[in-house]
Structure formats: structure tokens, C-alpha cells
Amino acid sequence: MIKKIKVIIATITLTISILTLSQQTIPAKCLPANSMWIEPTTIQLNETTPVGYRFNVTIYANISVASYAWQFYLTYNKAHLNVTGCWYSKGDKSEWAGTRPTSPQQPSYGSHNATHNYVLFAESLQGAVETPPGKYSLAIVEFEVVAVPPEGQTYQSQLRLDIPGPFNSYVLDTDLNEIQPLNYGGTTYTIIPEFSAPMLLMLMLLASLCTILLRKKWLKNNAAYHSQN
Fold this sequence. Notes:
229 residues, alpha+beta, Immunoglobulin-like, 2 domains, five-stranded mixed sheet, 2 helices, 14 strands, 22% helix, 38% strand, elongated
């Protein structure tokens, strides 16, 4: 009996812990050169995620040759998300730029089509300099959740760098030619309906009742033990 109660308490506790996490992410591994991708690769916005919740993703590149400029064109589902910010990964510059002189740009935002919006961002070096081959972070993009699905449904979509549009994502070499082929990696996100507060309270109450039963059983067994000794 005691063992069963312990199992019930452990199961309920684990369930509550999982359900009260606002965000679960799966980070990406470095993609082989030549690539540009988004980390994390998977985002799950769980039951307690409200409208207005914000999260960040980071854009990376891994290049096998010296480079001079980059640009990304990121599309997202505007029914689910809105971009609230975009900036270089290391403040005024990206990790890719390092200490080299740059021509900083401002991000631009717009409509990609009837269902998706975009954020466009870029960075270029200045003068007779170049960025050596390697993996670098480029920028950070902040998103805000604008809708959560009805109970029993989920929203799922992707953040992508490879959708054709008025602009495209690229990295330029020192001769200002696009480095090709350039592989792209996106992010899949899932939004689960907000978890019912009454259901969460019921689970917590059930866990408390099981704890009380377990304590009573322990006190009874302890009293019986001492009466025999």
C-alpha cells in the first residue's frame, strides 16, 4: 500500500513539474559547413505559456572559407508569433564580426505573404579585413506569442531561413560572391493550450491527500512496532 502511494505521489509531482514549465527547448548541434541555422531547433511552449510570453532564438553560421558579409531572411507564422526585437549576438556586433570594423544595419520587418511575416537583418565588414572560416553566432531574434490554441488543439509551425521571397539568406565571400551551396536549418515550435488551473489544483490536492494517507499509514505502523517492543 505504502509503495503504491509513493508511486502515485511521484507520478503526480512529475506531471505537475512538466505541466508548469513554460518552455522546453532542444538545442542544435553545429551544422557542417557551409550552413546557416537557428538554435534551438525545437521549442515547445507548454500549458502555462500565456499570450505575451517572449522567447529568443539565435542565428548561427558555419563557413569553410573567409567571409565578408551575411544576411538572413527569417519567416514566421504571424497568426502565432510577432517579432519584438532583433540584435547582433555580441551587442554592437556579431561574434562573426569580432573586433573587425563593420557597417551595422538596422533590422527590417514586413509581410512575406498572407500567413507569414519576416525579419531581415545583415552585417558587413569594412575595409581590407575578413572573417576567418569557422562557426559564429550572428544575431538574436525575440518573439512574442500572440495566440494560444483552444483546448484540445495545438499550434505548430516553423521559423525558416530558406523560404524564397523578396530577399534571401546568404553569406558573401571576400569577393562579394554568395558562398554556395549554403545549407539552412530552421526551428520547429509547438504551442500547447494553456493548462487548466482547476485541473492543476486538483492534482496538487490529490498529491496532498496521498501524502496524508502515507503519513497516517507510517504513524500506524510505527505505533504498532513500538507496542510490540
